[in-house]
User: Fold these one by one.
Assistant:
Number 1:
Amino acid sequence: MKTIASAPLAENVMLPQYDRQQLKTRIVHFGFGAFHRAHQALLTDRVLNAQGGDWGICEISLFSGDRLMSQLREQDHLFTVLEKGANGNQPIVIGAVNECLNARLDSLAAIIEKFCEPQVAIVSLTITEKGYCIDPATGSLDLSNPRIIHDLQTPTEPHSAPGIIVEALHRRRERDLQPFTVLSCDNIPDNGHVVKNAVLGMAKKRSPELAHWIQEHVSFPGTMVDRIVPAATEESLAEIAHALGVADPCAISCEPFIQWVIEDNFVCGRPQWETAGVQMVENVLPWEQMKLRMLNGSHSFLAYLGYLAGFQHISDCMQDSAFREAAYRLMLSEQAPTLQITDVDLDQYALSLLERFSNPALKHKTWQIAMDGSQKLPQRMLEGIRVHLSRQSEWPLLALGVAGWMRYVSGVDDSGSAIDIRDPLSEKIAALVAQSTESERVSALLSLYEIFATDLVQNPQFVAAVEQAWQRIAQYGARQAVIETLKN
Ligand code: NAD
């Protein structure tokens, strides 16, 4: 059967302009998900197009993705990214991936050895918050996580991402090989420190000498990543097949906007990503905070309130004047004042976000963004709220966002339909919901220490504001609650 590697492709398709035979596995990447394909892989491909080189990527998937990876192999590791903008669509075939390994298709031993090849310089990750096995309440490795328990008992046959990285670094040290840089590209605050805590937490349990060596020789640069990449659907794959002239089951579509800000701290070299427009900086935290609070915070607000109100996509929310105004005010009046960034025009940034959210071609589902709320709420909303509480400033829309999440995880939308809730804490959340009446719900859910810790729960202003917002949604429904809140 013809694939993108063998079929003639439509004329406007952009193809790799470099010699792919030169590629070696210099980057090993965990998590061949939607985002990585349209972001790091595409930007690395851009560097290769600009200057050639050997910066190939080996994709690793641990728990799923065997079908995707078989398909990727069948098409010579080429795949398509379709950038969908207001002025039309651009299909781009990415050539930067030179091999892939999957725990089901290949042996775990082969996967670990891949990390130990001498030329490997970077291990990057897009494995979502859960993949780091961090206890959100302490920020340290979660020693009660079953995968971590397993990896500490059998360190030479690890299953978790931190366990595999530590075993690979152990073997590299034993073999006198250079270490590698560990580059988290997940959308979690201070992602460099998160992955460092996970790796060092595991290494310390194994051997203090190994932990010391890692601390001395391995770097964990922080990154801010931005591009909206909805999960692939049958519809999006059919659209891409039409644009190419042949099916590509590994393809993904996304918006045209792309941003990557990286702390420039690499122990064994890196691609010249700046030639692809990547910003290399000393401190990524102010950038990350801006993105998490303004973009992701308003995205989550729209996801919970919008889903409850019956909006399937973010762009549908943006067609509603109240939701649009609420997102804009949330960004500028409630999130922007809590930020530390100095050299960005935040008014302009907010306007550009509204434009990106409005892109009707993207079909970014509110349900998808609403997933894993327990892992997202703290950095997207609660951190900003803490700043307001300390300054005694107003935050009505953030309160509505938190109450919107509570309403969402209570499991029924405003039309009375059941909600399919996906969250690592879903069992705990469901138990709290089942044990509480509507009027007890806020205090029941506030008992989730992993999300609200103790300071917020003990703050009467916080509790009262969320209770009031909850009442508003209960009384009016989500859409009218947004309108009522905007009247304040
Ligand atoms: P995805 O579900 O498409 O991909 C997630 C990948 O992580 C998959 O390959 C999966 O196999 C792997 N994974 C999941 N749990 C794992 C675990 N415990 N250990 C190892 N691997 C695991 O999701 P995505 O959209 O690609 O998102 C990935 C990351 O990128 C997230 O952190 C997300 O916040 C971030 N991000 C996504 C977007 C977007 O628009 N999609 C934008 C910015 C940032």
Number 2:
Amino acid sequence: MGKRDLSEYSICKDAQAMIAKAREDGVETVWDRLREQEPHCGFCELGLSCRNCIMGPCRIDPFGNGPQRGVCGADADVVVARNFGRMVAAGAAAHSDHGRDLIETLLAVGEGTTADYGIRDEAKLRRIAEEVGLAVAGKDAKAVALELAEQFFNDFGCRRGSISFIDRVPAKRRALWEKVGITPRGIDRDVVEMLHRTHMGVDNDAVNICLHAARLSLADGWGGSMIATEVSDILFGTPTPRTSKVNLGVLKADQVNILVHGHSPIVSEMILAAVHAPALLAKAKAAGAQGINLAGLCCTGNELLMRQGIPMAGNHLMTELALVTGAVEVVVVDYQCIMPSLVTVAGCYHSRIVTTSPKAKFTGATHIEFDVHNARQKAVEVVELAIERFKVRDAGRVEIPVEPVEVMTGFSNEAVLAALGGTAAPLIEAIKAGKIRGAVGIVGCNNPKVKQDYQNSNLIRECIKRDLLVLVTGCVTVSAGKQGLLMPAAADLAGPGLSEVCKALGIPPVLHVGSCVDNSRILQLCGMLATALGVDISDLPVAAAAPEWYSEKAATIGLYAVASGIFTVLGLAPPILGSKVVTDLAVSGLEGVVGASFAVEGDPVKAAELIDARIRVKRTALGLTP
Ligand code: XCC
Ligand code: SF4
């Protein structure tokens, strides 16, 4: 790692301390590897390299001196659009395949073939089943679970005209999608079709590819991700407000520390169940530990935080650094956003990485495969492994750098509506009165190209200052939580109107609504507000932002937000700048097609100004004070 000031890497004290320790311990981190990769390939950054076939690989010269077409004849616009389309397809595939795993679990519960999982929110099971058109009267919960699982499986194929949750989309938006031809069909169908279209010699019109990218992103947002969220609530409970703690200070020097990392709650919920087993606690005590401490990383951490109040150790860029504390026995992972480097970093300490999914193995990790029939037993094995590793922990290498910060979490739509007395009417009144001028979903990742949590947390501050209610998911949750922004006291940092509403309700001005698949909760809320007002989502005073995004999934989220009518600001540009057609479409053309577009702005104050300007326009058009 270079000699740069530690504050250039991250605004977080725990990150800075652990980057310094990594240097002392000779551990390589994501920032070291980024430096070795720089400068990045300019063709790739602009989206102008193609390796879709072996007549290539090809590169289009952005300056116009070199080749303007690949061997097949594809120009810059086609190459960029195809690459972006595949990026969005990969992101949708990740979220939606995660959703499918939840349906598999729901099916096993319905069939009665698992004793490890069950229905924790039967009322929601029945409500959702009725919503998607199933008859539930007189049926027991298992029978309903079975039918609902089968119904959701159909959303992945191509047997039906459209996805189950299409009625959550306001009528005006549905009509627009029909007109433009981007109504999502089967989830797998739309993802596969993108792979088909981007094979050499299929779809060679950049705009046509981009419109299909929009359609498949909608199949994720209103389909695969929404199914993941709703089935997770049915199986593990619908979140309700509660408090917990965040940052590396949630690790405990005198306890066995287990971190869950990845995305689905299927594994992490079982680990949670196991750490409370008296027999395991006794084993931990016999090994000299005061207890067994469980904390989360990234989105499966968000799942446990939202539903069970389990503390969060950190977001994406904290995953290596959590191991550098020397206090972590086991990181148990499922899939997505788990840097392969974790195995190497763990090897520098006594820590073990445990993989659990047949689709996500890491060379050098310990593989303990979970399925619906053995999950409880496998979770016990993971905890036993952690107790064994505690015995060989080197206390001299342990450093837990900070005290944890308190956060409030659990703001599912159900919880928000309950807090408002059962309907969205008080929220709509507050928006009409201008106390809450609008709402902004600030979501996504960390990226080592930018100072960790700086853009995420400062955009939040700038928005709440302007009386904009902020909803956070994913890794932004930790950025907000560490700065104290997820507690009711943060109302003091909000504008007068938002501050007044938050204080009256005892809520923070920044609401944690879950993991990245839970961005579907924000879509559903927007749909409800638009329908209540008789307008389209694009008419609402709302916006979205992904200030520090890195992943393909975040690209998909950004696109389904825009295709749903929500103006979206990205902190880093996607690899599309090599095509004028695709870039113009993204930052302005889409406005005329779906009523929203992207902006790219890395400065949080300027990003907030863009969002504010948008919300002024929307409020004025609704006849409200700007
Ligand atoms: Fe991954 Fe979901 Fe991004 Fe965090 S926010 S780095 S995608 S864990 Ni989803
Ligand atoms: Fe080159 Fe065309 Fe093949 Fe891409 S698809 S690698 S541009 S020949």
